[in-house]
């Protein structure tokens, strides 16, 4: 099949804005002249001025003007590719990072990139999504610059039947990354919702294009509520953010770096050693693994039962309350039942 790489994707943040921010952030204690910035990032002084104004409009506190030079008052918590890629050196995710200030859905972009032949490890990240998608056709609230909205394009050499394990791998990586920022241990609700105090702060949408015997590409889309001070009223009972839980502001940049480093480690371990270490880790960190009374809601039915571990493929086993024995749950909603 002929494929076309989308090297200059419309709407991605200009690489030179990325370079400008990185330069200012790395020299945050000194004033740098407009001419020097222009030279270093390959732009005109006029362009630098225009971009500084744009960054200011986004809330980045840049002091100064073209004559005196610029300096940044506080390093902004933006998910800028250059800052990410330096810190992801040695992982599969350092090479191709696409950043958007605003996009409909990072998963939709990453799926299109997968079709057009972009490489394994490509990352799509946005400050804001206008049509963030959740599982089962739900939407994902994606307010500007307070959450992580990121999709990872993978080309795993595994059959589609093993895809549930990929979903677990992503959930474990997000769990380990968030655990360092929380005072309480986060729980993993099968397959990969992250909860703290019983409320969800991270969801993962895995989508893929597969043939019967191989996965063409998979996209793991991660949405994490980080610095929201309040959740929309319709989900406030069931959703939370790291900031709501800890009363502290968290660095989205540091979290995403940790998440991608953990993902790289779990993913490589999964390819090298298979499912066993992944299932073992899930059993260690999830109260949903075994002995949890749950309500399962699938497209066709809703029933209660007791969780009974995972199958080697990552599928959840549930002993039904209605006496119909142990059943595998391939997909559907899992909720704690009383
Ligand atoms: C869920 O329903 O729990 C999954 C939510 C997944 C949301 C993320 S945000 C980044 C990526 N882009 C999307 O449109 N969805 C995922």
Summarize the structure in short.
By secondary structure, the chain is an alpha+beta fold. It is built from 9 helices and 14 strands. Helix content is 31%, strand content 25%.
| Class of secondary structure makeup | alpha+beta
Instruction: Give the overall shape, derived from the CA principal axes.
Output: elongated
> How many β-strand runs?
14
Q: Residue-averaged pLDDT, rounded? A: 93
Fold and architecture overview:
- The protein is α+β, with helices and mostly antiparallel strands and about 350 residues long.
- About 30% of the residues lie in helices and about 25% in strands.
- It has helices at about 15-25, 35-40, 45-55, 80-85, 105-115, 165-180, 240-245, 250-275, 275-285; strands at about 60-65, 70, 95-100, 125, 145-155, 185-190, 195, 200-210, 215-225, 290-295, 300-310, 315-320, 325-330, 335.
- The strands form 3 sheets. Strands 3-4-5-9-8-7-6 form a 7-stranded mixed β-sheet, with helices on both faces. Strands 13-12-11-10-14 form a 5-stranded antiparallel β-sheet, with no helix packed on it.
- It is elongated, with a radius of gyration of 21 Å.
- Biotin (BTN) binds near residues 133, 203 and 223.
């Amino acid at each position: 099949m002929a494929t076309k790489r989308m090297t200059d994707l419309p709407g991605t943040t200009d690489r030179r804005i990325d370079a400008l921010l990185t330069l200012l952030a790395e020299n945050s204690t000194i004033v740098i002249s407009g001419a020097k910035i222009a030279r270093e990032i390959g732009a005109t002084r006029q362009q630098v001025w225009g971009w500084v104004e744009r960054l200011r409009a986004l809330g980045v506190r840049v002091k100064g003007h073209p004559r005196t030079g610029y300096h940044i008052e506080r390093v902004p918590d933006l998910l800028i590719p250059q800052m990410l890629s330096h810190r992801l050196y040695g992982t599969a995710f350092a090479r191709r990072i696409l950043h958007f200030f605003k996009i409909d859905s990072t998963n939709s972009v990453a799926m299109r990139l997968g079709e057009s032949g972009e490489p394994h490890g490509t990352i799509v990240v946005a400050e804001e999504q206008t049509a963030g998608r959740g599982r089962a056709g739900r939407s994902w609230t994606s307010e500007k610059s307070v959450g992580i909205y990121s999709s990872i394009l993978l080309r795993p050499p595994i059959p589609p039947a093993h895809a549930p394990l990929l979903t677990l791998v992503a959930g474990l990586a997000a769990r380990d990354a968030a655990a360092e920022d929380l005072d309480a241990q986060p729980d993993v609700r099968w397959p990969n919702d992250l909860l703290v105090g019983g409320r969800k702060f991270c969801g993962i949408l895995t989508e893929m294009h597969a043939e019967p015997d191989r996965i063409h590409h998979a996209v793991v889309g991660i949405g994490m509520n980080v610095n929201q001070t309040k959740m929309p009223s319709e989900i406030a009972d069931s959703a939370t953010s790291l900031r709501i839980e800890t009363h502290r502001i968290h660095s989205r940049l540091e979290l995403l770096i940790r998440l991608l480093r953990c993902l790289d480690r779990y993913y490589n371990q999964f390819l090298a050693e298979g499912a066993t270490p992944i299932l073992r880790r899930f059993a260690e960190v999830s109260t949903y693994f075994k002995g949890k009374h749950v309500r399962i809601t699938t497209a066709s039915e809703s029933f209660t039962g007791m969780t009974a571990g995972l199958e080697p493929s990552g599928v959840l086993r549930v002993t039904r309350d209605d006496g119909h024995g142990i059943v595998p749950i391939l997909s559907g909603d899992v909720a704690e039942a009383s």
